[in-house]
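Fold it.
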Amino acid sequence: MTDEHTSRANGCLLSGLNGSNPLGYLAALGTLRLVSHAWPDRKIRVAWEVSDGAYRPRITSCESFTEKELITVAWDVLCHGTSASEREEAKQHRERLLQLRDEFDQQEASLKKQKLNKKQRDEKLKSLLAEQQLRLDAWRRIAHPQLQLGADTTVPPEEFLIMEQNAAETASHFHRAYADFVVALGSSCFQQENGRIEDTALRTMSGAGHQHFLGFMENLLLAVTPEHVRKSLLHDWVYDDPVQNLTMRWDPSDDARYALQWRDPSGDPRRRSGGSVLGANALAIAGLPLISCIPTKSGLRTVGFRGRGARDTYWIWPIWEPAIDMDTSRALVAHSLVGRLHTTLRTAEERRIRSDLAVLGVVRCFRSQRITVGKIRSFTPAEAV
Protein backbone atom coordinates (compact mmCIF):
# COMPACT_ATOMS: atom_id res chain seq x y z
CA MET A 1 0.00 0.00 0.00
CA THR A 2 1.48 3.37 -0.99
CA ASP A 3 1.79 6.38 1.30
CA GLU A 4 -0.64 8.22 -0.98
CA HIS A 5 -3.27 5.51 -0.55
CA THR A 6 -2.72 5.42 3.21
CA SER A 7 -3.35 9.16 3.51
CA ARG A 8 -6.62 8.75 1.62
CA ALA A 9 -7.85 5.80 3.68
CA ASN A 10 -6.76 6.71 7.21
CA GLY A 11 -5.92 10.38 7.20
CA CYS A 12 -2.33 11.56 7.24
CA LEU A 13 0.18 10.60 9.94
CA LEU A 14 2.50 13.56 10.52
CA SER A 15 5.49 11.37 11.23
CA GLY A 16 7.91 14.29 11.48
CA LEU A 17 6.22 15.78 14.55
CA ASN A 18 7.04 14.47 18.02
CA GLY A 19 4.46 15.34 20.67
CA SER A 20 7.10 15.43 23.42
CA ASN A 21 8.91 18.33 21.72
CA PRO A 22 7.36 21.76 22.48
CA LEU A 23 8.01 22.87 18.90
CA GLY A 24 6.58 19.66 17.45
CA TYR A 25 3.47 19.94 19.61
CA LEU A 26 2.82 23.55 18.61
CA ALA A 27 3.41 22.65 14.96
CA ALA A 28 0.78 19.91 15.26
CA LEU A 29 -1.73 22.39 16.71
CA GLY A 30 -0.82 24.83 13.98
CA THR A 31 -1.37 22.26 11.24
CA LEU A 32 -4.75 21.34 12.73
CA ARG A 33 -5.76 25.00 12.82
CA LEU A 34 -4.58 25.78 9.28
CA VAL A 35 -6.27 22.78 7.68
CA SER A 36 -9.46 23.43 9.66
CA HIS A 37 -9.57 26.94 8.23
CA ALA A 38 -8.79 25.72 4.72
CA TRP A 39 -11.43 22.95 4.78
CA PRO A 40 -14.13 24.20 7.20
CA ASP A 41 -16.73 21.66 6.01
CA ARG A 42 -14.55 18.56 6.13
CA LYS A 43 -14.68 17.88 9.90
CA ILE A 44 -10.91 18.02 10.38
CA ARG A 45 -9.71 16.08 13.44
CA VAL A 46 -6.41 15.24 15.09
CA ALA A 47 -5.47 12.23 17.22
CA TRP A 48 -2.14 11.09 18.63
CA GLU A 49 -0.69 7.62 18.16
CA VAL A 50 2.60 5.92 18.98
CA SER A 51 4.86 5.58 15.95
CA ASP A 52 8.64 5.04 15.94
CA GLY A 53 8.79 5.41 19.70
CA ALA A 54 7.00 8.77 19.96
CA TYR A 55 3.52 10.26 19.96
CA ARG A 56 2.76 11.51 16.43
CA PRO A 57 -0.37 13.40 15.28
CA ARG A 58 -2.71 12.02 12.65
CA ILE A 59 -4.93 14.44 10.74
CA THR A 60 -8.25 12.99 9.56
CA SER A 61 -11.21 14.29 7.57
CA CYS A 62 -14.66 13.18 6.45
CA GLU A 63 -13.34 13.47 2.87
CA SER A 64 -10.28 11.85 1.35
CA PHE A 65 -7.15 13.91 0.75
CA THR A 66 -3.53 13.34 -0.17
CA GLU A 67 -0.39 14.37 1.65
CA LYS A 68 0.34 16.84 -1.15
CA GLU A 69 -3.08 18.45 -0.77
CA LEU A 70 -2.64 18.73 2.99
CA ILE A 71 0.77 20.39 2.62
CA THR A 72 -0.45 22.78 -0.07
CA VAL A 73 -3.47 24.06 1.85
CA ALA A 74 -1.58 24.30 5.14
CA TRP A 75 1.15 26.40 3.49
CA ASP A 76 -1.38 28.57 1.66
CA VAL A 77 -3.32 29.52 4.81
CA LEU A 78 -0.11 29.85 6.83
CA CYS A 79 1.37 32.41 4.44
CA HIS A 80 -1.72 34.15 3.09
CA GLY A 81 -4.25 34.18 5.93
CA THR A 82 -7.46 32.45 6.94
CA SER A 83 -9.81 34.59 4.82
CA ALA A 84 -10.50 32.65 1.61
CA SER A 85 -11.81 35.78 -0.12
CA GLU A 86 -8.59 37.73 0.51
CA ARG A 87 -6.01 34.95 0.23
CA GLU A 88 -5.23 35.51 -3.44
CA GLU A 89 -4.60 39.21 -2.88
CA ALA A 90 -2.29 38.45 0.05
CA LYS A 91 -0.44 35.94 -2.13
CA GLN A 92 0.15 38.56 -4.82
CA HIS A 93 1.55 41.03 -2.28
CA ARG A 94 3.83 38.40 -0.72
CA GLU A 95 5.19 37.18 -4.07
CA ARG A 96 5.87 40.73 -5.26
CA LEU A 97 7.55 41.59 -1.95
CA LEU A 98 9.93 38.64 -2.30
CA GLN A 99 10.69 39.64 -5.89
CA LEU A 100 11.44 43.20 -4.79
CA ARG A 101 13.80 41.97 -2.10
CA ASP A 102 15.73 39.93 -4.66
CA GLU A 103 15.89 42.94 -6.98
CA PHE A 104 17.09 45.12 -4.12
CA ASP A 105 19.92 42.72 -3.24
CA GLN A 106 21.03 42.50 -6.88
CA GLN A 107 20.96 46.26 -7.42
CA GLU A 108 22.70 46.96 -4.13
CA ALA A 109 25.51 44.57 -5.05
CA SER A 110 25.83 46.25 -8.46
CA LEU A 111 25.97 49.73 -6.93
CA LYS A 112 28.66 48.65 -4.47
CA LYS A 113 30.79 47.52 -7.40
CA GLN A 114 30.38 51.02 -8.85
CA LYS A 115 31.93 52.32 -5.61
CA LEU A 116 29.04 54.64 -4.84
CA ASN A 117 28.80 55.84 -1.26
CA LYS A 118 25.89 54.85 0.98
CA LYS A 119 23.97 58.08 0.41
CA GLN A 120 24.17 57.65 -3.36
CA ARG A 121 23.14 54.00 -3.13
CA ASP A 122 20.17 54.79 -0.88
CA GLU A 123 18.96 57.43 -3.32
CA LYS A 124 18.99 54.99 -6.24
CA LEU A 125 17.31 52.25 -4.20
CA LYS A 126 14.66 54.54 -2.65
CA SER A 127 11.83 53.58 -5.00
CA LEU A 128 12.45 49.86 -4.49
CA LEU A 129 12.39 50.31 -0.72
CA ALA A 130 9.19 52.32 -0.88
CA GLU A 131 7.36 49.64 -2.88
CA GLN A 132 8.70 46.94 -0.58
CA GLN A 133 7.20 48.72 2.41
CA LEU A 134 3.85 49.14 0.65
CA ARG A 135 3.71 45.45 -0.24
CA LEU A 136 4.79 44.42 3.25
CA ASP A 137 2.15 46.60 4.90
CA ALA A 138 -0.56 45.21 2.61
CA TRP A 139 0.48 41.59 3.24
CA ARG A 140 0.55 42.12 7.01
CA ARG A 141 -2.86 43.77 7.01
CA ILE A 142 -4.53 40.95 5.07
CA ALA A 143 -2.69 37.80 6.15
CA HIS A 144 -1.17 38.55 9.58
CA PRO A 145 -2.49 41.75 11.15
CA GLN A 146 -0.90 40.86 14.50
CA LEU A 147 2.48 41.64 12.92
CA GLN A 148 1.45 45.29 12.64
CA LEU A 149 2.23 45.62 16.37
CA GLY A 150 5.96 45.81 15.62
CA ALA A 151 8.99 43.64 16.22
CA ASP A 152 8.07 42.58 19.77
CA THR A 153 5.13 42.29 22.17
CA THR A 154 6.90 44.49 24.73
CA VAL A 155 4.69 47.56 24.15
CA PRO A 156 2.73 49.90 26.44
CA PRO A 157 -0.88 48.92 27.32
CA GLU A 158 -2.38 51.81 25.34
CA GLU A 159 -0.64 50.60 22.18
CA PHE A 160 -1.79 47.02 22.63
CA LEU A 161 -5.32 48.23 23.44
CA ILE A 162 -5.62 49.69 19.94
CA MET A 163 -4.86 46.26 18.48
CA GLU A 164 -7.36 44.60 20.82
CA GLN A 165 -10.08 47.04 19.77
CA ASN A 166 -9.33 46.54 16.07
CA ALA A 167 -9.41 42.77 16.49
CA ALA A 168 -12.72 42.91 18.39
CA GLU A 169 -14.33 45.13 15.75
CA THR A 170 -13.37 42.81 12.87
CA ALA A 171 -14.07 39.50 14.64
CA SER A 172 -17.03 37.28 13.86
CA HIS A 173 -17.98 33.67 14.47
CA PHE A 174 -16.52 32.69 11.11
CA HIS A 175 -13.53 35.06 11.06
CA ARG A 176 -11.73 35.27 14.40
CA ALA A 177 -8.10 34.51 13.50
CA TYR A 178 -6.89 38.04 14.26
CA ALA A 179 -8.70 38.11 17.61
CA ASP A 180 -7.35 34.67 18.54
CA PHE A 181 -3.81 35.82 17.81
CA VAL A 182 -4.19 39.00 19.87
CA VAL A 183 -5.57 37.07 22.86
CA ALA A 184 -2.65 34.66 22.57
CA LEU A 185 -0.05 37.45 22.56
CA GLY A 186 -0.98 39.37 25.70
CA SER A 187 -3.38 41.80 27.34
CA SER A 188 -3.63 45.53 27.92
CA CYS A 189 -5.28 44.83 31.30
CA PHE A 190 -1.96 44.19 33.04
CA GLN A 191 1.15 46.33 33.11
CA GLN A 192 4.62 45.37 34.26
CA GLU A 193 6.87 47.65 36.31
CA ASN A 194 8.69 48.68 33.13
CA GLY A 195 5.42 50.04 31.69
CA ARG A 196 4.94 47.23 29.18
CA ILE A 197 2.07 44.77 28.96
CA GLU A 198 2.16 41.33 30.45
CA ASP A 199 2.38 38.94 27.53
CA THR A 200 2.40 35.26 26.64
CA ALA A 201 4.62 32.85 28.54
CA LEU A 202 5.55 31.44 25.13
CA ARG A 203 7.37 34.66 24.28
CA THR A 204 11.06 33.79 24.09
CA MET A 205 12.60 37.05 22.83
CA SER A 206 12.07 40.77 23.32
CA GLY A 207 14.78 42.49 21.30
CA ALA A 208 17.92 41.60 23.25
CA GLY A 209 20.71 40.47 20.98
CA HIS A 210 18.69 41.60 17.96
CA GLN A 211 16.27 38.73 18.52
CA HIS A 212 12.64 39.76 18.05
CA PHE A 213 9.57 37.64 18.81
CA LEU A 214 7.22 39.11 16.17
CA GLY A 215 10.07 40.07 13.89
CA PHE A 216 11.24 36.46 13.65
CA MET A 217 7.62 35.37 13.09
CA GLU A 218 7.53 37.63 10.06
CA ASN A 219 10.87 36.32 8.79
CA LEU A 220 9.61 32.74 9.01
CA LEU A 221 6.26 33.44 7.34
CA LEU A 222 8.00 35.13 4.43
CA ALA A 223 10.68 32.45 4.09
CA VAL A 224 8.64 29.24 4.44
CA THR A 225 7.90 27.19 1.32
CA PRO A 226 5.73 24.10 0.74
CA GLU A 227 8.92 22.04 0.77
CA HIS A 228 9.78 23.31 4.26
CA VAL A 229 6.30 22.28 5.40
CA ARG A 230 6.61 18.85 3.79
CA LYS A 231 9.98 18.12 5.37
CA SER A 232 8.87 19.11 8.85
CA LEU A 233 5.58 17.18 8.76
CA LEU A 234 6.54 13.95 7.04
CA HIS A 235 10.22 13.29 7.73
CA ASP A 236 12.66 13.07 10.63
CA TRP A 237 14.09 16.49 11.37
CA VAL A 238 17.64 16.98 10.10
CA TYR A 239 18.03 20.67 11.06
CA ASP A 240 19.35 21.71 7.66
CA ASP A 241 17.54 25.08 7.47
CA PRO A 242 19.10 28.41 8.54
CA VAL A 243 18.59 29.22 12.19
CA GLN A 244 19.83 32.83 12.17
CA ASN A 245 16.80 35.12 12.57
CA LEU A 246 14.56 32.14 11.68
CA THR A 247 13.66 30.47 14.97
CA MET A 248 10.99 30.93 17.62
CA ARG A 249 13.19 29.18 20.23
CA TRP A 250 10.48 26.64 21.11
CA ASP A 251 12.71 23.68 20.25
CA PRO A 252 14.94 22.56 23.16
CA SER A 253 17.83 22.40 20.68
CA ASP A 254 17.68 26.21 20.50
CA ASP A 255 19.27 26.40 23.95
CA ALA A 256 22.76 26.74 22.47
CA ARG A 257 24.96 28.40 25.08
CA TYR A 258 28.51 29.60 24.53
CA ALA A 259 29.70 27.78 27.67
CA LEU A 260 28.65 24.44 26.17
CA GLN A 261 30.21 24.93 22.72
CA TRP A 262 33.59 25.42 21.05
CA ARG A 263 32.68 28.85 19.72
CA ASP A 264 30.28 31.72 20.37
CA PRO A 265 26.98 30.56 18.76
CA SER A 266 25.91 34.16 18.04
CA GLY A 267 28.83 34.55 15.63
CA ASP A 268 28.81 31.05 14.17
CA PRO A 269 28.56 31.32 10.33
CA ARG A 270 26.92 27.88 10.23
CA ARG A 271 23.74 29.47 11.62
CA ARG A 272 23.13 30.91 8.15
CA SER A 273 22.90 27.45 6.58
CA GLY A 274 21.71 25.03 9.25
CA GLY A 275 20.54 24.39 12.78
CA SER A 276 16.76 24.77 12.42
CA VAL A 277 13.59 23.17 11.06
CA LEU A 278 12.09 26.19 9.33
CA GLY A 279 8.78 24.54 8.44
CA ALA A 280 8.08 23.41 12.01
CA ASN A 281 8.83 26.89 13.39
CA ALA A 282 6.45 28.47 10.88
CA LEU A 283 3.67 25.95 11.54
CA ALA A 284 4.10 26.42 15.29
CA ILE A 285 3.30 30.11 14.87
CA ALA A 286 -0.11 29.03 13.58
CA GLY A 287 -0.59 26.96 16.75
CA LEU A 288 -0.08 29.95 19.05
CA PRO A 289 -3.77 31.09 18.92
CA LEU A 290 -4.78 27.82 20.60
CA ILE A 291 -2.66 28.75 23.65
CA SER A 292 -4.55 31.77 24.94
CA CYS A 293 -3.65 34.29 27.64
CA ILE A 294 -6.23 34.59 30.43
CA PRO A 295 -6.67 37.54 32.84
CA THR A 296 -6.84 36.42 36.49
CA LYS A 297 -6.91 38.22 39.82
CA SER A 298 -3.17 37.63 40.18
CA GLY A 299 -2.22 38.80 36.70
CA LEU A 300 -2.09 37.41 33.17
CA ARG A 301 -1.75 33.65 32.79
CA THR A 302 -1.00 31.56 29.73
CA VAL A 303 -2.90 28.32 29.20
CA GLY A 304 -0.89 25.32 30.37
CA PHE A 305 1.75 27.33 32.27
CA ARG A 306 2.57 27.38 35.96
CA GLY A 307 5.04 29.71 37.67
CA ARG A 308 6.23 33.16 36.62
CA GLY A 309 9.92 33.43 37.40
CA ALA A 310 13.04 32.60 35.43
CA ARG A 311 13.52 29.30 37.28
CA ASP A 312 10.04 28.07 38.18
CA THR A 313 8.03 28.36 34.95
CA TYR A 314 6.74 25.14 33.39
CA TRP A 315 4.50 24.32 30.46
CA ILE A 316 2.45 21.13 30.48
CA TRP A 317 0.40 19.83 27.56
CA PRO A 318 -1.85 16.82 26.94
CA ILE A 319 -1.65 14.03 24.39
CA TRP A 320 -4.99 12.47 23.50
CA GLU A 321 -6.07 9.31 21.72
CA PRO A 322 -9.52 10.11 20.23
CA ALA A 323 -9.71 12.20 17.06
CA ILE A 324 -11.03 15.65 18.05
CA ASP A 325 -11.56 18.94 16.24
CA MET A 326 -9.83 22.29 16.68
CA ASP A 327 -12.27 23.75 19.23
CA THR A 328 -12.20 20.59 21.36
CA SER A 329 -8.40 20.61 21.20
CA ARG A 330 -8.37 24.22 22.39
CA ALA A 331 -10.56 23.26 25.36
CA LEU A 332 -8.53 20.17 26.24
CA VAL A 333 -5.21 22.03 26.13
CA ALA A 334 -6.70 24.52 28.62
CA HIS A 335 -8.36 21.93 30.89
CA SER A 336 -7.76 22.55 34.60
CA LEU A 337 -6.96 18.87 35.26
CA VAL A 338 -3.96 19.09 32.92
CA GLY A 339 -2.63 22.07 34.83
CA ARG A 340 -2.95 20.32 38.19
CA LEU A 341 -0.30 17.81 37.19
CA HIS A 342 2.19 20.66 37.64
CA THR A 343 1.90 20.45 41.39
CA THR A 344 3.08 17.88 43.91
CA LEU A 345 0.08 15.68 44.63
CA ARG A 346 -0.78 12.94 47.07
CA THR A 347 -0.76 9.56 45.35
CA ALA A 348 -4.50 8.98 45.65
CA GLU A 349 -5.33 12.44 44.31
CA GLU A 350 -2.91 12.04 41.42
CA ARG A 351 -4.48 8.69 40.50
CA ARG A 352 -7.92 10.31 40.49
CA ILE A 353 -6.77 13.15 38.23
CA ARG A 354 -5.15 10.74 35.80
CA SER A 355 -8.31 8.63 35.82
CA ASP A 356 -10.44 11.69 35.05
CA LEU A 357 -8.07 12.71 32.25
CA ALA A 358 -8.26 9.19 30.82
CA VAL A 359 -12.04 9.57 30.58
CA LEU A 360 -11.38 12.65 28.41
CA GLY A 361 -9.09 10.58 26.20
CA VAL A 362 -5.79 11.95 27.52
CA VAL A 363 -3.17 9.19 27.49
CA ARG A 364 -0.08 11.22 28.43
CA CYS A 365 1.03 14.68 29.50
CA PHE A 366 4.43 16.24 28.95
CA ARG A 367 6.13 19.02 30.88
CA SER A 368 8.93 21.36 29.81
CA GLN A 369 10.64 24.01 31.88
CA ARG A 370 11.06 27.47 30.43
CA ILE A 371 14.53 28.72 31.29
CA THR A 372 15.98 32.21 30.96
CA VAL A 373 19.62 32.88 30.14
CA GLY A 374 20.30 36.59 30.10
CA LYS A 375 17.22 38.00 28.40
CA ILE A 376 16.63 35.04 26.09
CA ARG A 377 14.24 32.21 26.94
CA SER A 378 14.32 28.57 25.88
CA PHE A 379 12.54 25.32 26.72
CA THR A 380 14.10 22.17 28.16
CA PRO A 381 13.52 18.66 26.76
CA ALA A 382 10.14 17.52 28.04
CA GLU A 383 9.45 14.83 30.62
CA ALA A 384 6.33 12.71 30.91
CA VAL A 385 4.17 13.56 33.93
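The first strand starts at residue 12 and ends at 13.
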